[in-house]
Design a protein that fits this description.
With 203 residues, the protein is α/β, with parallel strands linked by helices. It has seven helices and nine strands, in the order E-E-H-E-H-E-H-E-H-E-H-E-H-E-E-H.
Length: 203
């Protein structure tokens, strides 16, 4: 596309070589992880215990979410990451991965789980329920703000989700394209704010 002089606008996830695109419009993925970590430590006051991270190390957006969460909880040396595995952001894979983690940590209680997205969190919850270990986990976080996540938060099975706003991303992308065509200069990266959704926000 670059060789053919076709402008490229990237939505929802970042690319590694930003020189190839006009602009990247994404959720503030870094802040999504920070919001989850701060809710864990500042709102729930959980500053010690075992943490599980389910990541997607080939997606830049997912990397930003989990890395920022990890960097934030590093401030609390008594929070220990006992497992960090890839789920590819899929329900079925995350369920199997979480079951394996639970089997390999039978004698260790898990305090919190950070999932890179909501589908991963759904798989985590299914695994915990299947293994009968749901009650020991004090917090489960996802990212997306999906309707299914809201239902699980209401049911008391999920703690929070960092909500993204796809309509806003689309709107900004269209506006940016018109500006570019009109000869206006636009930012190389536009981050759309995210919001942590907890039970209090859904009530």
């Amino acid at each position: 596309a670059r060789k053919a002089n076709i402008p490229v606008f990237v939505l929802d996830t970042s690319v590694y070589n930003k020189d190839l695109v006009v602009t990247t419009i994404v959720s503030d993925n870094e802040n999504a992880g920070i919001l989850c970590a701060r809710h864990l430590t500042e709102v729930l006051k959980i500053t010690e215990g075992n943490i599980v991270i389910l990541e997607h190390p080939t997606a830049k957006s997912a990397i930003e979410r989990t890395d920022s969460f990890i960097n934030e909880i590093k401030k609390f040396p008594n929070l220990k990451i006992i497992a960090k595995n890839s789920s590819d952001g899929q329900v079925e894979i995350s369920m199997k991965i979480m079951e394996d983690i639970l089997d390999s940590h039978k004698n260790e209680k898990i305090s919190a789980i950070m999932a890179l997205n909501d589908p991963t969190a759904f798989g985590v919850i299914a695994a915990l329920e299947r293994k009968g270990r749901m009650k020991e986990v004090k917090a489960i976080y996802g990212v997306d703000g999906s309707s299914d996540a809201y239902k699980l938060i209401e049911a008391g099975k999920m703690t929070a989700t960092a909500a993204q706003y796809p309509k806003e991303i689309g709107k900004i992308a269209a506006e940016s394209a018109y500006k570019f065509i009109s000869g206006e200069k636009i930012s190389k990266e536009i981050k759309v704010p995210v919001k942590l959704i907890t039970l209090e926000d859904i009530k």
